[in-house]
Amino acid sequence: MATLEKQPPTSGDSNKLKKTPRVRTTPPIVAWATVGAAFIALAIYVASSWILGGRATPTPIGANNPNLGRDLAWNIGAQVFTITAVVGTLIYVGRRCIRERRVTFDAILVVAYLLLIQWDPILNYVTPQFSYSSLMMNFGSWTTDMPGWVSPHGNLMPEPTILIGIGFIWSASLCMIGCTFLRNVVMRRWPQTGKLGIILWSLGFMIVADFVIETVLCYGHIISYPNTVSWMTLFEGTSHQFPLYEALVWGGLGWAPLMVLRFYLDDRGNSVVERGVDRLNVSNKAKVGLQILAVAAVTNICYLSYNIVMLLIGLQIDNDSHAVYPSHLINGICGHETPYPCPEPANGRPISTGGQPGSPSDIPGDGRTWVDVYLGR
C-alpha cells in the first residue's frame, strides 16, 4: 500500500505563519459600557442645564384640591413605602455582596436603574400624557432642558424626589422577585421551559405587576394619566383612569428585559452584556465601573424604547380628562385651570410646540408647595 510522506515546512512557510496577523476582538462589555457612558453624559448635561438654569424649584399644588387630606395621606404613604422598600433592597443586596465578597449583579442593577432617571418624564416629550402629584417632595422636572423638547411647560411636571429619585431601586428588587418566581414556580412546574417561554413568562409577570402597582397609584392620586386613548383606558373619565397600554409597554419594555437579563447570568454571576470583563487588564474597581456602565446601557435602552412607543401612542390621544382632576395632578401644564388647551391629535386639536418652560407663578392658587403643606403653612 502506498504511503504519503509529509514534507517538512520550509522556511518560507514558517515566515508566512509568523507574519499572520492576530485578530483582536473588543470584549462585549467595552461596547456596552461605551453606550452606557454616552447615556450618562447626556444625563449630566440635562441635570446641569436644569439646575444651573434655576428651574429646579417645587411645583405649587394649585387651588382646586377638594380632598387634600385624603390625597396627602396617600402621597405620604407612598413615599414612606418607597423608603422602606429601598432600605430593604439595599440591606438584602449589601448582605449578598458581603457574603460573596464581590459586587454582585444585583448591586450593579440597583446602580444601573438609578442611572436612567433622566428618561422618566420623557413620555411627555410631544404631548402631555402623564403627571405625578405635586404633594410629593419634588423640584419640578428637567424636561424642557432635554434637547429638542417640544411640549410647553413640561418643567412643571413634578418629578418626585423619593418615589422616583431613589425609588427606581425597587425596580431592581422587582426583577429579583420575578426571577425567584421563574425559578421556584415556573421551572419547578415546567422544567423544560426554554428561552422563549422564560421571555413570555417575564412579560406576563411584569405586565401584571405594573397593572397592579399603577392602578393603585392612580386610585390614590399619586400619579395621573389625564390624556389617553379612550378605547384603551380603564375607568375612563374619572380622576383615577388608567391606560391599559401603559402596563403593556412599560411592563414589556421597561421591566421584563432586565428580568430576563438577570435570569440568564453565567456561572460567574455576570450577564451577557458583561462578557469579556475577566479579559480586561484593569483594576477590579475599573471592572466594576465598566459593568455598571454596561448594565446601565441596557436599562437606558429599555426606557428609551418605552418612551418612543409611548410618544407614538400619544399621537392618537382623544381623551382629555383634565377637568376631573385636582390641581396637584395637572400642575398647570395644560387643560383645565390653564389658558393652554391640551392636544388631542385624534380629534384635530393641534399639538403645542416650542418647548418653553413654564413659571410656577402661573399656576392658580396661593403658591403653596409640598414644603408649605408638610410644615402646615
Helix percent band: 40-55%
Number of domains: 1
The residue ranges in which pLDDT falls below 50 over 5 or more consecutive positions are none
Number of helices: 10
User: Topology as H/E string?
Assistant: HHHHEHHEEEEHHEHH
Beta-strand fraction estimate: under 5%
Oligomer: single chain
Strand pairing plus helix content: what structural class?
Answer: mainly alpha
Mean pLDDT: 91
Walk me through this protein's architecture.
With 377 residues, the protein is mainly α. It has one domain. It is 48% helix and 3% strand. The protein has 10 helices and 6 strands, in the order H-H-H-H-E-H-H-E-E-E-E-H-H-E-H-H. The chain has helices at 11-18, 28-52, 68-100, 105-114, 169-189, 195-219, 244-263, 284-314, 327-330, 370-374, and strands spanning 131-132, 223-224, 227-228, 233-234, 242-243, 319-320. The strands form 3 sheets. A two-stranded antiparallel sheet has the order 1-2. A two-stranded antiparallel sheet has the order 3-6. The chain has a two-stranded antiparallel sheet with strand order 4-5. Strand 4 (233-234) and strand 5 (242-243) form a beta hairpin. Helix 5 crosses helix 7. It is globular, with a radius of gyration of 25 Å. 43% of the residues are buried.
Provide a quick synopsis of the model:
The protein has 377 residues and is mainly α.
Structural descriptors:
two-stranded antiparallel sheet, single chain, mainly alpha, two-stranded antiparallel ribbon, 377 residues
